[in-house]
Inverse folding.
């Protein structure tokens, strides 16, 4: 095969366009809508995929116009992703208006945004440049949009020698800029800087500096791998989104280098391959991935696996992954159709997998996926979510991560990063790590340590602590035991807070918007406590059985019951000073499936104002209404205290389960 300057040739791109309309008719329609609006100088809000709101950018387009307070708007617009839609629309229709708009937008941008003077401060160029069209990140991404759109439209008569010469001049300017300010290889931005530079070096290979551009990009991408890919193959920011995005950032130059005759070292591809272990582990039975930190619900990890399989020419990965529109436009219709057929019978892994050096644990069984976070924050894109978890059972995501929603400084940015928005313990109304700004946390950040990890045929356990609240005037250490049943549908969450003085403690559960939550309380004379609980009340300082919550998911014919028990110890102030009861409420919360969009949901909050050490135990029993009613498990006994830990007895029509768990061991007897 002769060397290429792009992933697909003109014939292959036309075939991809035909397959796009066949296999992804809705996406093809959306592409045409985006392109048609761009012809009118109307743009979608970046990252949102919101096709109901279009922003007029002026005639000619004002590339610095920003109707929001979020600098990401300007940065996103100046990445020129809409040009990819213009190119695809041209391939699908042959309409020259899309080419005309591409050329017009390219020229107007170049007129409005000449290269900055070389005296620009380093920090401004790399991170904080406002309004931002020449920030290194946008510079590296924009050239990829220009080159891809050019490849899509190469058979148009408007793509003549004169325009090509203009494009090459602009690409040279971008290459000079990208080599003048070298971003730190410890952050993901540097990957995209060099991703763009390598693409220029391949596309404009006849330029006398092209070998230098390719060599510099190759070496710096290797440095990025060295600094950012950890021992367990996880990208250093420890988020799903940036890990999976890094696969593409590292992978596309590797692929293009192979196709163009400028291959990367073998070790580079091996590092890429190591990243798939984490991506595969994060995939739930619904083929979505847990949204750790600044990530989104819509992430499809299998699509990334397929993409990397194509990049590495690894059929095993291709079969385990899932083809996507991006895969089609990268590898062509023939490869797409081949692996689409092979992937139809591939199942999601159900084997649990740990990343103990990082602190991530995926506990799995058929139809079940539980993610537990005992990892460091990971930097600016991390959230204050130590000992957070997400639980998917059968057809439903029960307890969720909120997503990221926005990078715009303000209330909502803090909310989605806050401890209160995650499935963990919040103490005294403050975050585990103090929030400073959208891209900054105070130091030291909360640090976690895993104390126990057990895997068994019938259950799995993880036990971890974090020190985020040790900074309080009265230090508090939070320890969490998490037990997931396998044959028996059961989740046990035990939280211990070791303290000496008074604190406000809140155990938080973020629900999926599909949930209908109902709080039942023994203190309400009009409410009934669940009849399947044998309440054994002892002294209030030892144990208190507290209200239960019923969660219903009518769309998937599932439900879940939640029970609590409370354990306190030490000298307690009088009841006049402190209320020793755990107060269970359902309050409004928010989740964000995709950047820029949020929707309301419910949060179950179990709160108490206590003195000294305290333990909160929660038992969650899900029910599948499509299964035999005889399989429903009933709570027969729930006891909890500091010395003996938790004792739980369940039964159904055929079996009994007795569970004991304390800080040393767990016993699980199913008879």
């Amino acid at each position: 095969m002769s060397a290429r300057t792009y992933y697909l040739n003109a014939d292959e791109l036309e075939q991809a366009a035909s397959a796009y309309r066949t296999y992804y008719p809705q996406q093809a329609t959306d592409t045409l809508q985006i392109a048609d609006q761009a012809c009118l100088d109307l743009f979608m809000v970046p990252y949102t995929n919101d096709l109901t709101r279009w922003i007029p950018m002026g005639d000619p387009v004002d590339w610095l116009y920003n109707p929001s307070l979020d600098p990401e708007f300007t940065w996103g617009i100046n990445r020129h992703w809409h040009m990819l839609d213009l190119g695809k629309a041209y391939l699908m229709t042959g309409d020259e208006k899309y080419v005309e708009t591409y050329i017009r937008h390219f020229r107007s941008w170049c007129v409005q945004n000449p290269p900055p003077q070389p005296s620009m401060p380093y920090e401004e160029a790399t991170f904080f440049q406002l309004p931002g069209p020449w920030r290194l990140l946008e510079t590296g991404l924009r050239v990829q949009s220009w080159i891809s759109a050019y490849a899509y439209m190469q058979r148009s008569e408007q793509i003549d020698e004169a325009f090509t010469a203009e494009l090459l001049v602009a690409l040279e300017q971008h290459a000079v800029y990208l080599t003048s300010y070298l971003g730190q290889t410890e952050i993901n931005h540097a990957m995209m800087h060099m991703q763009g530079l390598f693409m220029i070096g391949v596309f404009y290979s006849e330029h006398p500096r092209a070998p230098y551009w390719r060599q510099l990009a190759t070496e710096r991408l290797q440095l990025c791998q060295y600094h950012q890919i950890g021992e367990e193959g996880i990208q250093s920011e420890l988020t799903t989104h940036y890990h999976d995005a890094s696969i593409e950032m590292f992978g596309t130059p590797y692929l293009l280098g192979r196709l163009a005759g400028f291959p990367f070292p073998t070790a580079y591809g091996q590092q890429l391959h190591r990243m798939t272990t984490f991506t595969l582990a994060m995939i739930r039975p619904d083929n979505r991935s847990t949204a750790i930190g600044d990530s989104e619900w819509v992430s499809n990890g299998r699509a990334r696996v397929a993409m990397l399989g194509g990049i590495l020419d690894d059929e095993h990965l291709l079969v385990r992954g899932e083809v996507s529109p991006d895969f089609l436009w990268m590898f062509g219709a023939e490869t797409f159709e081949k692996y689409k057929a092979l992937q139809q019978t591939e199942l999601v892994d159900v084997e649990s997998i740990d990343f103990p050096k990082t602190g991530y644990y995926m506990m799995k069984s058929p139809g079940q996926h539980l993610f537990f976070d005992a990892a460091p924050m990971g930097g600016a894109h991390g959230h204050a979510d130590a000992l957070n978890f997400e639980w998917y059972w059968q057809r439903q995501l029960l307890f969720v991560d909120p997503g990221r929603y926005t990078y715009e400084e303000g209330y909502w940015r803090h909310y989605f990063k806050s401890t209160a928005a995650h499935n963990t313990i919040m103490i005294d109304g403050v975050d585990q790590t103090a929030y400073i700004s959208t891209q900054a946390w105070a130091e030291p950040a909360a640090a976690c340590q895993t104390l126990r990890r057990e895997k068994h045929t019938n259950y799995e356990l993880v036990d971890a602590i974090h020190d985020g609240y040790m900074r309080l005037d009265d230090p508090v250490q939070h320890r969490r035991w998490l037990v997931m049943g396998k044959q028996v549908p059961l989740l046990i969450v035990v939280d211990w807070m070791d303290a000496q003085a008074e604190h406000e403690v809140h155990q938080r559960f973020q629900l999926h918007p599909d949930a209908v939550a109902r709080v039942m309380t023994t203190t309400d004379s009009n409410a009934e406590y669940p009849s399947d609980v044998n309440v054994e009340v002892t002294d209030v300082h030892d144990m208190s059985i507290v209200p239960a919550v019923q969660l219903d998911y009518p769309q998937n014919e599932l439900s879940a019951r939640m029970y609590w028990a409370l354990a306190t110890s030490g000298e307690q102030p009088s009841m006049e000073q402190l209320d020793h009861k755990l107060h269970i409420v359902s309050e409004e919360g928010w989740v964000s499936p995709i950047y820029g969009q949020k929707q309301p949901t419910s949060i179950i909050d179990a709160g108490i104002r206590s003195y000294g050490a305290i333990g909160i135990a929660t038992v969650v029993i899900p029910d599948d209404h499509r299964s035999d009613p005889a399989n429903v498990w009933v709570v027969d006994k729930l006891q909890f205290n500091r010395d003996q830990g938790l004792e739980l007895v369940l039964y159904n029509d055929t079996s009994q389960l007795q569970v004991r768990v304390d800080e040393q061991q767990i016993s699980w007897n199913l008879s």
User: Anything to note?
Assistant: Residues 523-546, 572-578 have pLDDT under 50 and may be disordered.
